[in-house]
Amino acid sequence: NSGKTLTIEAGSEVRFTPLLDDQSSGNDNNRGELYVYGTLIANGTASDTIVFTSNAETPASGDWYGIYLRDGNSNGSFKYNRIEYATYGIRFQYAYGSISDTTRITNSRIHHSGNGIYIYYSNRYDIIEKNTLHDLSGTGIQVSNGNGSGYIRNNTILKHNSTGIRVYDKGTFDISDNMIDGKTSGGSGIHVERMKSITVRKDTIQNTTGTGIYIEYSSGYATSQWKVVSNVIKDNGYYGVRIRYASVNVDSNTISGHSNYGVLIETNFENPTSDTLRYNTIINNGSYGIRVNE
After folding, report:
1. Residue 200, Cβ density class (10 Å: 0-12 exposed, 13-18 middle, ≥19 buried)
2. Of 226, 128, 143, nearest to 178 (Cα)?
3. What is the pLDDT of residue 153?
4. What is the pLDDT of residues 234-253, one digit of tens each?
5. 28 partner at 20 to 30 Å CA-CA among 19, 68, 163, 212?
6. Residue 5 β-bridge partners
C-alpha cells in the first residue's frame, strides 16, 4: 500500500500459483500478480538471487501476471532478480515523480515471459543496466511517455518477438553497449521516436527479422541532433537503419547483411530533416547501401 515498504531478502523465492487469482482482481482475474502502491525493495546479490516464478510443475510463459508498480507513490529497486514465466516481468505505470526520483533495474534475468521491462508514464530517472532478457513473446525493454530520462546500458536481449528496446515520448536517454540478438525470432532491434535527445552508441543488433535501428519524428521534440554512433548492425531483416522524419547523426557504424537497404532516410516538405552520415561501413546489403526517399 501507499506509504509502506516491503523488503524481500536476498535468496528468497516467491512462487505464484499458475493461472489462478484467488482475489479475482487486478489486471487479470485469472492470474496472480504482485501489485505495489508503496515501495518494493528486491535487492539480491550475485550469489543470492531473488526469484519470482511459477509454482507449476511444468511452468510456462504467462502462468502469473508479473510485478506491477502503480501510481505516483509507488517505487522499487530490483537487483539480482530472476523473474520467469510471467506476462510482464516488471511493469511501472503512472509512476509520475520527478527527475530526482530514480528507478533501478539492474543485474537481473527475465525470461520465458511476455514482456520484460515496461515503464509507462514516468517523470523519473530510469536506470536499466546489466540485465539479461530472453525468450520473450513481446518486447524486451519499453519505456514511454512522461518527461523522465535515463539510460539503458549493458543489457543482453535474446529471442524476442517484438522490439528489443523501444523508447518514445521521453526526455533524454542513452542506449549503449547493449547486445540484441533475435536469433532469427521475430521482431526488431531498437526503435525510438519523439525524444528530446537520444544517443544510441556501441550497441550490437543482429539476427532480427525486422529493422536493426528505427528512428522517427524528431521535429518539434528534439533539442539537439540525435546520435547513432559506433554500432554494429548486421544480418537483420529489410533495413539496417531506418530514419523517418528525424534529424540524426549516423557516425562510424558497421551496417551489413540486410535483405534490402543498409540505410533508408525518409523525409518530405512537411517534415524537413538534416541528417549526417559519415565514417560508416555499409556492405553486403541486398539492394541499396544508402537510399533517400522524398
Report:
1. buried
2. 128
3. 98
4. 999 999 999 999 999 999 99
5. 163
6. 39
Rg, C-alpha atoms of the chain: 20
- Which pairing describes strands 50-54 and 132-136: parallel, antiparallel, or unpaired? unpaired
Residue 277 DSSP SS3: strand
Number of C-beta neighbours around residue 167 at 10 A: 24
The whole-angstrom distance between residue 197's C-alpha and the CA centroid of its chain comes to 17
Tell me the average confidence (pLDDT) per consecutive run of 10 residues in the chain, 294 residues long. 90 92 70 92 98 97 95 94 98 90 96 98 96 97 96 97 96 97 87 97 96 94 93 96 96 97 92 90 96 91
Q: What's 86's DSSP letter?
A: B
Q: Angle at the Cα of 68 (from 155 to 9), degrees rounded to 5? A: 75
What pLDDT is attached to residue 25? 62
Q: Measured between alpha carbons, how far is 183 from 19 in angstroms, rounded to an integer?
A: 29
Residue 24's contacts (CB-CB under 8 Å, 6 or more residues apart) are none
Residue 283, all three cell numbers: 556492405
Cβ(123)–Cβ(98) under 8 Å?
yes
For 23, other C-beta atoms within 10 Å of its C-beta total 9
Nearest-angstrom CA–CA distance, 153 and 246: 23
Which grid cell is 240? 539496417
For the four alpha carbons of 95, 166, 30 and 76, in that order, the dihedral sign comes to negative
CA distance 147 to 41: 24
Q: Rounded to whole angstroms, how far apart are CA atoms 39 and 193?
A: 30
Return the closest-CA partner of residue 155 out of 147, 144, 143: 143
